[in-house]
Structures are given as C-alpha cells and as structure tokens.
Amino acid sequence: MRVVRYAEADLPAGPARQVAELEAAAWPGAEPGHDPALAPRALLLLTADGTVAASLALLFKEIRLAGRTYRAAGLSAVVTRSTLRGRGCGARLVAAARAELAADPAVDLALFSCDRPLAPFYEAAGFPVLPGTVLVGGTPGQPLATDAPGFDKVVVAAFFTDEPARDRAAFTGARVPLYPGNTDRLW
C-alpha cells in the first residue's frame, strides 16, 4: 500500500468517487467535499490495484489564541474501507498525515476533535488529548462547540513550533475559536 496526496480540487475522478462512497457509508446524508477556503488536501492510502483503503482530508486556517496567531491544520473525514478495518490502514494514514504536517514549515500545529472512544487511536498516532480544551467551530454568529449538549468529543493536537510545551499549555483547557465556517463546522 502507498500514501498519495492531492489538493482536493485535483483529486482524480476514480479515487474521488471512491472517497465519496466511503464517506457516504460512514456519514450518510453528509455533503461530500470541504470548504475551498480551508485549502483542503486529500491523503489516500491505496492498495496495489489502486483501491482507496483509507482517506482523510487536511484542512488549514489561522487561529488567534493567547495573543498569537497560529497556522493550524486539522484532520477531517478520516475513514477506512469497512472490509479493511482492523488491519492498520487508518493508523498508517493518520501517522502519514502527522509526519506530513510536522515537516510543513507553514504549519504550527495540528488540532482537531474526535469522538471520545477514538482518542486512543489518535494518541497512538502522535496526537495527544488536550485536557479540558474545547474547539468552537461554525461561525461566530452560529458557533458549534465540542462541548455542546449531546457531543462526547475530545480535542487532540500535535505542536510543531519552536516552543511546543509553551504552546500546548496555551491550548490546554482553552476555548479555541476555530470558526472554520458552515461547511466544515468542526474538523
């Protein structure tokens, strides 16, 4: 298997169709694709015959917190083909995403939310939980927070700055104004 990367707008038709099918099976009724303002990139894990085994999207935006502006990335729509689950495909792809973000000088941190039961999966890939942190998504006029009633979310992050301990402390226990818009309300 191999990992391939595309700007979402440049994703070839065959893999794009497979990603849409995987996402529709995982999240019925959700609209495919991401807000172009978030510069979405698709990461795919392909089998030898070109089948999409797993996919995810990387989304990007600046976040202002604690008097600083951070260049943030988030993982979104992480999904593995149901017939290949339990074989490490998702773990391999998430680890590749972390490595790609860590090597990108335009990214200060990776920050996203996940369902609480998935936290150990993301922690194993190098995204520790930020205790007490809440992401506030949506828009300032229509916010959607990870601590909203009915959500059981945690926030995970990896810091790639010169002072990761300082920056982790700034984000720990904070309400982070993510505001990615109405398409990707929480990434």
Automatic annotation (TrEMBL):
Gene3D superfamilies per the UniProt record, alphabetical: 3.40.630.30
Listed Pfam families: Acetyltransf_9
Alphabetical list of InterPro entries matching this protein: Acyl_CoA_acyltransferase
Entry protein name: GNAT superfamily N-acetyltransferase
Lineage, broadest ranks: Bacteria, Bacillati, Actinomycetota, Actinomycetes, Kitasatosporales
